Amino acid sequence: MHLWQIMVKLSAFDIEQDSTLWTSFRSGNQQALADLFLAQYDKLYRYGFRLYSDEDVIKDCIQELFLKLWHKRQSLGEVREVTPYLCQALRRTIVDSLREKSGRFRLWTPGDEERLEVTFSHEDFLISQQIDDEQRRRLTAALNQLTKRQREAVHLRYFENFEPGEIARIMNLSDQSVYNLLYRSVQALRDNFFLLLLIGANN
Q1: What is the pTM of this model?
Q2: RNA polymerase sigma-70 region domain: from which residue to which, for each copy (predicted)?
Q3: Are residues 32 and 105 in the same domain?
Q4: How does pLDDT run across 49-88, given as a tens digit for each residue?
Q5: Residue 3's pLDDT is what?
Q6: Which of 115, 138, 165 is the last residue in one of the domains?
Q7: Domain with 63 in it: what CATH number?
Q8: In the prediction, which pLDDT does 114 show?
Q9: What is the pLDDT of residue 56?
Q10: Please, what's the b/e burial string for 36-65 (b: 16 or more CB within 10 A of its CB; e: otherwise)?
Q11: Does one domain contain both 111 and 126?
Q12: In degrees, to the nearest 5, what angle opens at C-alpha 91 toward C-alphas 87 and 97?
């Protein structure tokens, strides 16, 4: 069996397992929610910290998110792909937290997302032994020249391995908008895109 086939099977197993935990916690099983928290925490933290690089804020937002899920469990619907759903919910929770800290108690608007910004640094790529310092510098500079939404889409696609449809759900965009973001990102990164693929494949 090829490696990619193994990865697809493992991914399908994770999705099924998370979906089972989701169903169980909605029925009032606290242990299922705890297991879901443990299974999802690392990915949620990585994504949240990418959006807003304050460790305490992100940890608080993840805890707040799961508390809200528990209190609202009876009104929640069935979710097949739990990770994109939770990433989208965390994104909104971070925005709400920042609004609350700034004393802006009003209806949420898309403009509230302006404080969320994925940025890349040289250190992000130190784990890769396949590129040298100059290539890391070039790739970091090229990524940070992208728009905010392009950087977020690139992070989700090539560092977290989400499919375009999942990214659309997380970022609250249409599928076509995500395809456009990724296409324009690839065009802008055309001289460095192979390096991005090398690194993304090893994350």
Answers
A1: 0.78
A2: 39-102
A3: yes
A4: 989 989 999 999 999 999 999 999 999 988 888 999 999 9
A5: 34
A6: 115
A7: 1.10.1740.10
A8: 67
A9: 94
A10: bbebbeebbbebbebbbeeeebbeebbeeb
A11: no
A12: 140
Domain span holding position 157:
122-200
Based on the fold, state whether residues 7 and 97 are members of the same structural domain: yes
Q: How many structural domains comprise the chain?
A: 2
Query: Are residues 31 and 97 part of one domain?
Result: yes
Whats the size of the chain, residue-wise? 203
- Below-50 pLDDT ranges, the chain: 1-13, 201
Identify whether residues 73 and 146 lie together within a single domain. no
Among 85, 115, 145, identify where a domain stops. 115
pLDDT in tens, 35-53: 999 999 999 999 999 899 8
